[in-house]
């Protein structure tokens, strides 16, 4: 089998996506069944077990291709960032075209046009919905759920400043594999903020370091950093909110925190990820 990244390649010894025929070895090749996420937030794991590590999260309305279903688990690939893994089968429903995305950090789904009705669920920023019509201040989706319309934007509408989006997550708890305002990790923060601003980014920091923006030579005294730059370590990424301040989801604070970049660089070099590996500019 030609080496391909397990995170992005829907292939196992027993089956693989039909698009990979001739590129990988597998017992059989299958078409992916289109589906979408119908639960607010769904764990995507590297193995079909509840105790397997959380690789990332799928969010409401996210389109996927399901390649296998067994023992309560779906083996799938997300259309959002091509991530491959296992998630509970019950989290998916029929595929359908989205019309809007969530712009609030999180918003409730209601069963009807009343904020006093018990919510059906809480969906995060960048979740996708299909709006069929409006009723008062609510957008009604194809599932019948009601969403506060001002928490939505059309798919072609984006935030002007991805850094401002990231700053809204300040204080959010750190969660390995998380990508919502209830918990996220360093690359989840970067991916989510960029998506809100109309930029598609890979899920993990090593892939972001390869693909997002353009690398530039970092001055030894860090003096050429500016707002919006991404700073990378081996296994970590942060966002510059000013020439001197770094915003990042990190295990030291166990939260999204802002701190002087020089202080962060010193501490990270001493205690965790080592030296900065690159700086990149969008």
TrEMBL record:
Transmembrane segments: none annotated. GO terms for biological process: proteolysis. Residues 156-282 form the NlpC/P60 domain. Pfam families: NLPC_P60 (PF00877), SH3_16 (PF18348). The keyword Transmembrane does not apply. One of its GO terms (molecular function) is cysteine-type peptidase activity. Keywords: Hydrolase, Protease, Thiol protease. Belongs to the peptidase C40 family. PANTHER family: NLP_P60 DOMAIN-CONTAINING PROTEIN-RELATED, PEPTIDOGLYCAN DL-ENDOPEPTIDASE CWLO. This is NlpC/P60 family protein. It comes from Phreatobacter stygius.
